[in-house]
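Morning. Coffee machine broken again, so started the prediction first thing and wrote up yesterday's gels while waiting. Chain of 690 residues, entered below exactly as on the submission form.
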Amino acid sequence: MKRKNSKSKINKILRFVGIALCILIGIAFGTVWFYSDSLPPTSELRNFTMRSGSEVYDRNGKMVYLFAFEKRKLVSLKELPPHLIDALVVTEDKNFFKHFGVDIIGNIRAIAIDIVRMDFSQGASTITQQMARNMFLTLDKRISRKIKEVILAFKIEREFSKEEILEIYFNKIFWGGQLHGVEAAALNYYGKHAKDLSLAESATLVGMIQRPNYYNPIKHAERAQARRDNVLERMFSSGVISAADYELAVSSPLRKRGSSMRQTSSDYFIEHIRLYLERKYGTDRLFEGGLRIYTTLDQDLSVYADSVLNEYLTGIEKRYNYPNIMADVSPNAFDINTKYLQGGLVLMENRTGFVRAMIGGRDFSHSKFNRMTQAKRQPGSSIKPIYYTAAVEKGYTPATVINDAEISLMGGDGKKWTPTNYSKKYYGFTRMRTAITHSYNVWAVKTAIDLGLDTLTDAFNRFGINRKVTDYSAALGSYEVTPITMVSAYSTFPNGGTRVSPVFITKVEDINGRVLERGIATKSKVTTEEVAYIMTSMMQSVTTSGTGASARNNYNWQVAGKTGTSSDHRDAWFIGYNPVFTLGIWNGFDNNATISGSAICAPIWGRIMTHCIKLDNNGRIPRSDDSRYSFKKPDKIVSFKINPSSGFLASDGGIDEYFIEGNVPPAMNDTLQFNFYPTRWGYNDSLEIE
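Came back before lunch.
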C-alpha cells in the first residue's frame, strides 16, 4: 500500500514537472515568437560594408581624415594581427568558438543575479550578443532587450560563420568619440593601420571596448595602462601569448602617437573641402557613400606651418602685452568669439595651383571661420604689384621716376584725401624699383592716377580681384579681398604671366573606384612673360633690401614678394614666391582692431618655405643656386647700367637694371634731369584727376 502511494506521488510530481516544462517551453516559444516578429532581419549585416565613410588622403597617399556619421574605415579580418583577435576572444568571450551565439551558463547566472538585485546590470554577453545589441538594439537594461539580444545572437550564428561575425564586430564596435571600427581606432589613437598594431597596442584597444571613454589612452593614460595589463595577463593565463611576449608587452610604455584622423593643423583645409563635397555630392553620399578623396594637402608641411605661425603670433602677444591672448582661452573652449590676434596662410604650387597647406586660424575648435577663404580683408600695399603690372604694360620701367611729394585729391566720400607714406616722410624724385622696394604710398597713388580708374579696374579683374575701382584709395589696398585670392593673383608672376586658380582636390573616386572628378587648375593669361619678369625683379628687391627683407630669414634661394599693411594697421601681409611655390601669410584681429607693434608676416615666411622645399626634396636641402628655385630671365629682357638718381642710361658707372627689349630709357641729355617716361607726372606734379 505504501509502495502504491509512493508511486502515485512520484507520478503526480512527474506529471507536474512535465506540465511545468510544457508551460515553460510554451512560454519560451511564445516569447521567442512574440519578440522575433518585431526583430530586424539579420541579413542586413550582408550590406554592412556598403555603409562606410569617405576617406581623405593627402598628397603622399596617407589617409588623414574620414567623413562619416560614425567614423569607420572597413578592414578585412585577414588583415588583422592574430594577437588582436586573441585579445578580443580571451577578454570578451573565451568560449566564442564553442557556443552557438549564447553562453547558456553565463547568461543564466547573469539573469539570476539580475532578478535577485532587480537592476538588470549583469553582462555575460558573448561577442555575437554584443554585435546583435550594437547593430540592431538599444542599450537599455530591460530584460526584454536581453531576450531580443539572445534571439538575434542565435540567428546571426545560424547565418554567419565565426570569422564573418568577428569581421563585422571589429568593423562596428564603438571606440569613443565618433570612432567605430578597429581601423578608425588604430588610426586615431596610434596613427597606424590596424594590421600594424603591436601586441601592447592591441591589448589597449581591446581593453577599451566595454568603457571606451573611461579607458581612453590619450585622456586617461593610467586607467588605460592598468586595463591593458589586465588584458595581457588574461592572454598569458590562457596560453595565447608566451611569458616573454607578456613581459615585453606589459613593460612597454603606453604609446599615444599622433592621430592621422583627427583634425589638427589640417582642420581648415578639411572643412573647406567638406563644404565643397557636401554641396556637390550630398551629405549622405559624403558621409556614408565610401568615397575616396585625394587632396593636394601636405600633412607634414601643415603641421610645421601651423606650429611656426602660432609660435610667432604668441611671441607678438607677449612682446607687446596684448590684453587678449590665446593662452588665456580655456583649452576646452569651442566656437567662441576669438578676441586674440589671428593669423593664417596659404601655400600653393605655382604651376598646378595645388594647395599644399592652408591654415585658416590659430585654433579650429575656437573658431571654424576660415580667414583665408571666407574673410575679406584690406590687402594694403600688397595690392600694388597688381596695378604696377598695368603700369609696366603701358611703358613704365624700373627706372621710371616720379616725384614722391605731397598730393591731395577728393576721396569717394567727397572729402579731401592726402595720402602719406608709412614713415610720414616724402622722398622726392624716386625710381619705380625704389618705390616698390620701400613701399612708398604717394608714388603708388600717383601711378594709379596716371593709369586711371578704368585701367585699375581692368588690372584687378585680370588678376581675379573682381572689383570695380571707383576711387584711388584702391591704390593703397582699401578694397577688401580674401587672402587666397591674393595668393592666386601672385601666382601670375612666377608663372610667366599666367594666373592659376587654387586646387584642393586632385581626384574623387566612388566606392567601386570609378573616377567622379579630377581637380585641374583654371589658368588665365594676365600679362606677358616679360612684364611678369620685370615685376618679379622689382619684388626681389623688396626681399633683399626693402620691407620684406626679413622673409629671407632661414631661406637661401631666390624669392620675390610684397608686404602689406592696411589702413590704421588692421591687417599685416606678406606674399612671397619662388619659381615653384607661393606662400601668403596674413594676421590681424577678427574685429578689425589695430595691430600693436611690428606684427609683420615676413619673418616666418622663410622658415615655412624652407621646410616646404626640404619636404619636396625628401628631406634634403638643395643648393642655393638650384635652377628649380631660380627665376629664369626671358630672352627679351635686357640689362643696362643706369644712373641711380636720374633713371637714364649711365654714360659711365651706374647700377644694373632690367628692361623689356625696345623699352630702354635713353642716355641722360641736356633737356631732362629725370626719366619721367612714360608717366605724365613731371616737375609740376599737376595732372587732371578723374
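DSSP finds 20 helices and 18 strands in the chain. Going to sketch it on the whiteboard this afternoon.
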